[in-house]
Design goal:
single chain; about 180 residues; 2 domains; two-stranded antiparallel ribbon; about 5% strand; binds heme C
Amino acid sequence: MHLPLCGVRLSKSHGARFFFLCFVFWGCVAMRRGKLIFGCITLIFTLATGTNPHASATAQDKQDALIKRGDYLVNNVGRCAECHTARKANGELDNAKHLQGSPTWFAPNPGIKFKKWDKSAPDLTQSGRAGKWTEERLVKFLSTGEQANAPMPAYKMTLEDAQAVTAYLRSLPGTKKKGVEE
Ligand code: HEC
């Protein structure tokens, strides 16, 4: 809900909205009955407190949306797990160890000499890069593609996408959830 005059947005929750409107109504009635100061105080207090729950709800909503987009980019587009998740003996991804690092399961054709070829892909969760690198460092790595050694693809994501991927990786506890440190 938007009040154009005051430029405030109200909480999405119906309960909060109901009480907010009751207080606004009460404030207006008080003002009409001549209790101007009492009415003003009620209105100011209501507007001040009524906008706060929404402010935090919006920040949380935005963060949730960012993580959801990161989830999509990591798991449906970039398919980071193909290299960063360990595999079971039958070659399937071991989803219990999602993005917690893995030895590289393929090797270059003997005729191709890479300057640098990494034999393992690191843990990307809170127990690995997402916990140890700053947000800025991860975003830079994913948006510039600089310093990615084969077979890590040199992703050149937009800043928004790199931020979403970073937010998603930071939301994964990795081995920290079991209380196991690297
Ligand atoms: C084809 C395999 C492959 C895929 C797919 C892949 N990676 Fe990697 N990644 C690697 C390897 C191997 C390394 C180690 C080499 C290196 O550090 O550059 C690595 C390293 C990294 C590092 C650490 C870089 C460093 O300098 O320590 C990050 C962060 C990373 N990958 C993120 C991702 C993300 C996010 C995705 C998906 C969007 C992804 N990777 C997809 C293979 C892969």
